[in-house]
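Hi all, long-time lurker, first post. I run a small reading group and we've been trying to get comfortable going from sequence to structure in the token notation. Rather than ask abstract questions, I figured I'd post a concrete chain and ask someone more experienced to write out its structure so we can walk through it together at our next meeting. Sequence below, copied exactly:
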Amino acid sequence: MYIFLTKNFGKVFGAEADIYGFGFDNFYKQNSNINETKIENPSKINILITHGTLDGENKEDMQYNPLSKRELKALGFDYIALGHIHKPYYKEERDQRIVYSGSTISLGFDELGSHGMIVGNIEKDKKLEIAFVPIDKTEFVETILDITEIISKEELIEKLNDVGIEENKYYKIILTGARNFEINTYEILRLIENKNIIKLKDNTKLKVNLEELAKEKSLKGIFVKNMLEKITIDNEEEIIKAIEIGLEAM
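-- Answer (accepted) --
Happy to help. Here is the structure in token form:
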């Protein structure tokens, strides 16, 4: 969301400012030809509003109305209000005039951080004044918890209940480190009392010395030894993950 002020706010849609909207007629648009847009009255405040991906870096980005910051600046607009990206982008450079306001509310952990609107003052040929004003009282937050020193499920639940939280925030806890016990994230999430934690992700690794285990004359030792022999430069991560799954099954 954007709110703009001019010296005479009552004329923002009249004599003092021209608002340009640039759309496209399909969900994907690989070339919008936005660089052909011409400003009719350069003496006015000119604002461009459009959806698109600014300086995209991958194939998917290049399918959704790809926009070049360099080409947009060359168009000569006093302000360019962009949509599509749900995260605010407004203070990445000095006197920035190409801005994503982001969405007014966050809908999940793929939209972290504050959400709100851009408020600004625009006067022709003067420095642009804009500020981000938070609207959404809730916020989605990711935080990391290393469980290497935690020795049981019960201790992990206790630790999660003691995690410092803010009442208006919802948390995704990413578990890291070497685990000493089996982790069932769905079960643990159900058992914890801290209801602001709404998601757990297990990024831990099994706490075991694979080289030492491979020397044992046991089913686990033989399994690990055979699997380690299959490791190459290209598949090491997959093999280690397969060993972890196999050991847990045993």
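A couple of things your group might point at:
The helical segments are 69-74, 153-161, 185-191, 210-213, 219-228, 236-249.
The first strand starts at residue 2 and ends at 5.
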